[in-house]
Structure formats: C-alpha cells, structure tokens
Amino acid sequence: MSERKKALLVDDDPAVTDYLQIKLGSRYDVVAVNDPTRVVEVARSEHPDVIVCDIDMPVMDGGAVCRALAQAPDTRDIPFLYLTSIVSPSESAQLDGVIAGRPGVSKHAPMVDILARIRAVVSA
C-alpha cells in the first residue's frame, strides 16, 4: 500500500481552504494555511509533497510565496502549483497549464481537472 501524499494549501480565504480540504481529503493528507507569511515555516514543519497556492492574496501574493519557498534550501524542491481565479479554465488550457511561469490551474476548473493537475505536479 502506498503512502498518502501531503498537500499544503495556501489561500487567504478560509472558505477556499475548507472546501479544498473536503475535496482533497480522501486522496491527500491536507494542511491549510490562510496566512501566506507562514508558508515557509509550515512547509518546513509539515514536509508536504505539493504546495497548492492562490496568486491573488493581500500582504504576500502567490509570486512572493513561491520566491520565499525557492530561497529556502529545505523547501525549494517542493512541487508548487498555482490554483487561482485570475484565469478561467479555458485560459489555463490555452496557457498549457502554466501560469506566471509555474504549473497552474483555474479555481473554476472541474474538481477532476484540479486533482489531475495536482497529481501531475506531484509525479513530475
């Protein structure tokens, strides 16, 4: 039996992380952070297999989160995926699933597509 993967969700909206915890919880061990300034600290303590991060957040946006993780030797190699509402599912497809230079998917995509994108990033 394979070990369950752990996903770290980063979104300033607790409703989003609560929803995703429910949807992803049957497949992943899920840890959520609603304060993006805590991501590096939580990633260091939780050792996630993937980080799923919103882009448009106050105080620290997804790009700043990604840069902070990349600067820390113990978090820089964790697979990272943007989950954002700034692109539609069709725009995400037109961008070949790359948003701001990183793998990404629209929050408005069907959950099956979001799960497939997470699996692809974890497996890469």
From TrEMBL:
Q: Does the keyword Transit peptide apply?
A: no
Q: What is this protein called?
A: Response regulator
Lineage summary: Bacteria, Pseudomonadati, Pseudomonadota, Betaproteobacteria, Burkholderiales
- Kindly give the InterPro entries that the UniProt entry links to this protein: Bact_response_regulator (IPR050595), CheY-like_superfamily (IPR011006), Sig_transdc_resp-reg_receiver (IPR001789)
- Which of UniProt's keywords are assigned here? Phosphoprotein
Modified positions (4-aspartylphosphate) in chain numbering: D54
Q: Which residues form the Response regulatory domain?
A: 6-122
The cross-references to SMART domains, in alphabetical order and at most eight, read: REC (SM00448)
Q: Which domain of life is it from?
A: Bacteria
Return any one Pfam family short name.
Answer: Response_reg
